Amino acid sequence: MAWKHLPLRVSSALTAAAFTAAEAVGLSLLFLRSMGRERALPSRRRARPATCGPVFTVPEPHRPRSGRGPVLVCAVASRVPWYGSARLVIAATTVSAAATAVAFAMAYRDTGRVLTPMDQIRREFAEITATDLSRRIPVPDHPELRDMVGAMNAALDRLEIAFDDLQRFTSDASHDLRSPLAGIRTRLEEALAHPGDVDWPRTAADVLAGVDRQQAIVTDLLSLARLDTGGPIRLQRTDLTRLTGAELRARPAGRIPIASDLGEAVTVDCDPLLITRLLTNLLDNAQRHAATQVTVAVTADEGAAVLRVIDDGDGIPPEQREKVFERFTRLQASRDRDPGGTGLGLPISRLIAEAHNGTLTIEAHDDPHPVTCFVLRLPLYGG
């Protein structure tokens, strides 16, 4: 039941008025308690005091001559709300529990439909990464999982390519590192076997050459590792024309002369040390393969700084122009001209260009004779 307090100030003289006011607001006065004695009101809807709810004590505004004290008024609503019925409360509780159980069952079913294929995908992915990277996860019919499986298969594609490159790189690196060591070991064993018949100065020179080659391979491998990590580079405003000219002047004279075609200043945002390393690699390669001359030119073309290194050698066939940028790849002509090369100079040069948001390619050149033209393109400063 909903109990309401009736804020009425009543006295013996106003009992009838209090009863009338209570009936007007839908309440029934059950009894009055005054001076410790209970006196029932003239109402047909009386109830025992024990069934009454909270009581509201109102002191009389004027103490009557009889000396009676405060009057207690107990009031109860005449209409019972729905939640005061035990049957309705039980019915509402039952319906609520049933609805909750149905909702839980439906959620459990839908969750199982999603988690079961996800668990299968997880097991399939774990098996592929542990055994065979050439396999792919079957695409499920579930629309929410189709995109996720597509992304995982794309990641497996990249992982397979990277793993194959790592295996090939490791195999080539181990081979090129073993070759100098094997040569050094052979020369030292022969010298120790016949110490009196050995030209020790020449043996020492051969061993030193092998050590130098091994050191060059290790240095290039470290450079590749730093560039592969994609770490930050120290960019600064640089005049590519002046940088190229300074490198050409500092370069010792070699078998093949180098001609330059350097025009006006071409400014780029680059790491001077890395660009110098790139230029050195291109010049070494050009002088190794040129017949009579190497030409270096710096220009600005369509918002890019362009550096060209041209040699008049035998040229590179179009189908092999990308292959020379692979690690430890050396064409037969390169092996014949420089047996001590590492096969890492051009791959390092391309990585340096890409680290500067540029490109390094081999392009055709307008010349009646076969030539090789390496072209470096870098964004102009502020472009």
Automatic annotation (TrEMBL):
Residues 172-382 form the Histidine kinase domain. Residues 112-164 form the HAMP domain. GO terms for molecular function: phosphorelay sensor kinase activity. Its EC number is 2.7.13.3. Keywords: Kinase, Membrane, Phosphoprotein, Transferase, Transmembrane, Transmembrane helix, Two-component regulatory system. The chain crosses the membrane at residues 12-32, 88-108. GO terms for cellular component: plasma membrane. It comes from the Bacteria. Gene3D superfamilies: 1.10.287.130, 6.10.340.10, Histidine kinase-like ATPase, C-terminal domain. SUPFAM superfamilies: ATPase domain of HSP90 chaperone/DNA topoisomerase II/histidine kinase, Homodimeric domain of signal transducing histidine kinase. The keyword Transferase applies. It is found in: Cell membrane. It catalyses: ATP + protein L-histidine = ADP + protein N-phospho-L-histidine. The keyword Phosphoprotein applies. This is histidine kinase.
